[in-house]
Amino acid sequence: MKRLIAGLVVMVIILGAAALLVMQKHKNSQVANAQARPAAATPAAMSPKPVPGADALTGTVKETMDSGGYTYVLLATEKGETWVAAPKTVVKVGQKVSFVPGMVMKNFKSETLNRTFDEVVFSPGLAGAGGRGMAGGGACPVKGDRKPAGMGMGGGQAPMNSSGRVVVPPLDLKIAKAQGENGYSVAELYAKGKELDKKKVKVHAKVVKVSLSIMGKNWVHLQDGTGDPNNGTHDLVVTTQHKPTVGEIVTVEGILYADKDFGAGYRYDVIIEQATINNSK
Length: 281
What we know:
With 281 residues, the chain is of the alpha+beta class. The chain has helices at residues 2-36, 43-46, 186-191, and strands at 57-67, 70-77, 80-87, 96-99, 103-110, 115-122, 183-184, 199-214, 217-223, 236-240, 249-261, 267-279. It starts with a helix and ends with a strand. The model is unreliable at 29-54 and 129-164 (pLDDT under 50).
């Protein structure tokens, strides 16, 4: 019996030692793997890349023209020449100015000038105190603070109006209203929002921004040159399963909803949902 007990004790000791050895090897392996992996990204390393056009636009005016309620300025900056479009502003050739950053549009055609720009930055206007507000005249394209909106409903970094939603700065456009009894301009949809609530409507406009796959929908911003930039009624949001391309002139049909609130501060005075989108070209 004593020999049996002694044997069992020896076996327990051996098994315990083996278990400790396995645990130590596993621990050493974890340390080695952790040392081999790159360090976790810091918040600074994970921060998003700057949005095109987010840098300050400071330079000397080389050329300027007014058209369609906008002032177009060829600005000579340290990085080269840049076309900037802002609500009508008084500037002179040779004057050094600073514009608030804005949205970059490539191959943009001005309907009123009948001219296509390789690239133009649509700015809210001349930079005032702290880069906010206006200097030299012109209307601010959105109400409230112009701050980055981040990725949200309709996503991307762009100005926000007082409802909290993302609003694309107004573009120089002149697009004919959609035909038919349920055809409206962007401005008319805002003006008649309550009257048209939950009714089928149609709008003919230009796609100025697209954000894909948010809440199972694609969020499309439309403009036709109507509406008031001061309160954001120049920019209409549509949700759809279609994937239009920025710059396309399209006809959109869908159900209009007035005073639509998605929460998190994203409220729309009007929005078109369940929309179908057809290229008008």
